Amino acid sequence: MLKPVDLRMYGLLLRPWGERDLDAIRRGLADPEFRRWNTINVPSPDEAGARDFLESRTTGWQCGEMASFAVTAPGAGGGAGAVLGHISIGMIDFDTHRSGRVGYWVLPEARGRGVATRALDALSRWAFRDLGLYRLELGHAIGNDASCAVAERCHYRHEGDLRGAMFDITGTPRDVHVHGRLAVDPPPRLSGVTVPGDNTTPHA
Fold first, then answer.
1. Long-range contacts formed by 162-170: CB under 8 A, 24+ apart
2. What's the alpha-carbon Rg for the chain, to the nearest Å?
3. What is the pLDDT of residue 74?
4. Which of 62, 69, 130, 161 lies 20 to 30 Å from 19 when distance is taken between CA atoms?
5. Segment (H or E) for 151
6. Would the pLDDT of 199 be above 80?
7. What pLDDT is recorded for position 40?
8. Is the pLDDT of residue 76 over 90?
9. Percentage of the chain with pLDDT > 70?
């Protein structure tokens, strides 16, 4: 089991998803850009799909296989504000490979503000420091230039392409860019932001 935590860094609060977030989840799943670049097995863009998403994320924490966060703007008093997007580490292997696979999306109204970049670097630093992982991998469909740019800004190196490695929601096979970041790689210095010290607290 992974103990849920809250992460505060780069002016963001990353916290586990909860029931209060169902509308934000539904909007994220229904977003045309999200669906354009995702796989055939994504949850449906309705309340049932949002609940499936939430249940799988809760189970991921409980089984120790996934750490999934709502990316939020801190609210009054340091609490959670508006949901901006999602980020997670899945396929976590603590023993053999000390690795995981990251994924993220940002709601339309929050794009263009560096949300994905800040969230990805915050998550990566936590995974290396607190989870003891050594390698994080990121994959996206070729053509998703925005996701590629986020990966590169966070020092996830482009390591190669996988032909026909995913099927999109229309059932069409897509080639995938693979990026990776190691615990020993130099971390990025993101423009205009500073990296605080320990910023992890148990999730209430």
1. 165/139, 166/39, 166/139, 166/141, 167/39, 167/40, 168/36, 168/37, 168/38, 168/39, 168/40, 168/141, 169/35, 169/38, 169/39, 169/40, 169/42, 170/40
2. 16
3. 78
4. 130
5. helix 145-153
6. no
7. 85
8. no
9. 91
CB within 8 Å of 72: residues ≥ 6 apart: 12, 13, 14, 15, 80, 81, 82, 83, 84
9-13, 46-50, 152-156, 187-191: the lowest-pLDDT one:
187-191
- pLDDT score for 89: 98
How far apart, in whole angstroms, are the C-alpha atoms of residue 17 and residue 105?
14
Answer whether residue 96 shows pLDDT above 70: yes
Residues with Cβ within 8 Å of 33's Cβ and at least 6 positions away in sequence, in order, are: 108
Q: Which two tokens stand for residue 173?
A: 């096979």
Query: How far from chain centre, in Å, is Cα 160?
Result: 21
User: What six digits make up the tokens of 189?
Assistant: 């210095």
CA-CA distance, 30 to 44, in Å (whole number)?
8
Nearest to 200 by CA among 100, 114, 131, 118: 131
Q: How far apart are CA 46 and CA 138, in angstroms?
A: 27
Helix (H, G, I), strand (E, B) or coil at 115: helix
The torsion region of residue 101 among left (phi > 0), alpha (psi -120 to 50) and beta comes to beta
